[in-house]
Amino acid sequence: MKVIARTCVVLLLLSGLVILPQCQKKAEIHEVKIGGLFDLTGATHEISVPYADGIRNYIDYINEKGGINGRKVKLIEVDYGYLIPRAEAAYENFIKVEKVHAILGWGTGDTEMLRSKIAKDRIPFMSASYSSKLGIINEAPYNFLIGVTYSDQMRIALRFILDQWKDKSRRPKVAFIYSDTAFGKSPIADGYTYAASHGIDVVADEIVTLDAREAIDQLSRIKAMEADYAILQETTWAASVILKYARKLELKTRFIGLNWCADEKLIALAGEAAEGFTGTAPFIFTDVNIPGIRKILEYNRRKGVDIEGYILRHIQGWTTAEVMLEGVRRAGNDLSGSGIKKGLESIRGYNTGGITAPVTFAPSDHRGCKKLKLVRVVDGKWQLITNYIAAE
Description:
By secondary structure, the protein is of the alpha/beta class. The protein has two domains: about 30-145 and about 290-360, Rossmann fold; about 150-280 and about 375-390, Response regulator (Rossmann fold, 3-Layer(aba) Sandwich). It has twelve helices and 15 strands. It has helices spanning about 45-65, 85-100, 110-120, 150-165, 180-185, 190-195, 215-225, 235-250, 265-270, 290-305, 310-330, 335-345; strands at about 10-15, 15-20, 30-40, 70-80, 100-105, 125, 145, 175-180, 200-205, 230-235, 255, 280, 370-380, 380-385, 390.
């Protein structure tokens, strides 16, 4: 009997008639392989390390329960140090050598660079980047986002400023502060567009590196322009430096940070300078009693792991892995890229236990969440200050 993939044929000879049904079993898949692309040593390691821990711990959690559809999940991880060439090399290894079923990625620059390869290779990819480019379905048909895009976060922050603005004699003046990276620049053009069409003056545009040690010149220019608000697209370290120097320079500017600079670590780094800082929160971390966070904390207590001070980044990684593997579960025995893609696209109103708004994907839209809440540092602690807000 000759074996041919995906066909079942038996060779029969009957009365001179040849019928060719040949039989072959499809190779059985015993484990689900997930590629993990993390920055454990590079410019964003302070937030990527706890994020990666969240992914590892969710995979351990789900394996304790028997895995996905009876298959254990294997995480194959690489530290790419936030360097795009290393990310590309790691991706090629995932596809050609490890033959992973899906990938959990990290940065904006590398995820945007890999978009066309991801589409060509038909590999479901869920990144920690929420760049709006990753939501363009015809350019990134295998990318999925569960965080609100940076551009939508920017629009929500600007809308919040308008809602708070009471001075009818003039328009609010806003500064943008961001790193000179694909991540930093991701929402800026959309921010300018929204501001121009909604009566907001952007009076300063400043670059602060992710590993900055001071920001005197940038903040001095913002002070000279008398900006009412400044919106930060930075990570925790840079945001803490900006806030400390703003305090030294006695800026009256109020600061709003997009999600990667609004976490528990910011308060530890910036101290009193963090007071009053507002942040966008696509992932809720202020209430440890919500079901999603309670489950994570119970797991970590059982394992003897302390995530105090890193709850947000940990739950981001955990929740991202959870949603990706929900797509794998729905794919059943079809663990091809297209099979997992269909599984993810079947998710409607997925409940993350209150950590995010309900997650919904569709074949025409891979942006899983489109609304978030705002948080603020009050008396040294993060507090929720709004209900869910959707971008216009």
